[in-house]
Amino acid sequence: MTKEPEKPSAQKPEKSPMAMAGAGFEFVSSIALFVVGGYYLDDYMKTEPLWLLVGFFLGFIFAFYSLIKRAKENE
After folding, report:
1. Transmembrane residues, as ranges (predicted)?
2. Contact 35, 53 (CB under 8 A)
């Protein structure tokens, strides 16, 4: 009687350096995307720092949400 190999779904995914770099890039790019959107919205609506700040905080919230979601997937 031989031992059966584990099913691929039962194994945990490896935490490679490229996966961590991807998470960092996703974190920074989501904040940058919302900030740039807020900047152009401010320029269009002539409301100086309002939408830039709103974009920063929305990007920060989205970035942390993505980071937490990715961490839960890797548990």
Report:
1. 20-38, 50-68
2. no
Residues 6+ apart with CB under 8 A from 21: none
Q: Is the pLDDT of residue 73 over 90?
A: no
Measured CA to CA, the distance from residue 61 to residue 57 in angstroms comes to 6
DSSP state of 47: -
In degrees, to the nearest 5, what angle opens at C-alpha 40 toward C-alphas 69 and 42? 100
- Selection from 30, 28, 26 nearest residue 55 by Cα: 30
The residue type of 33 is: L
**71's tokens:** 């961490």
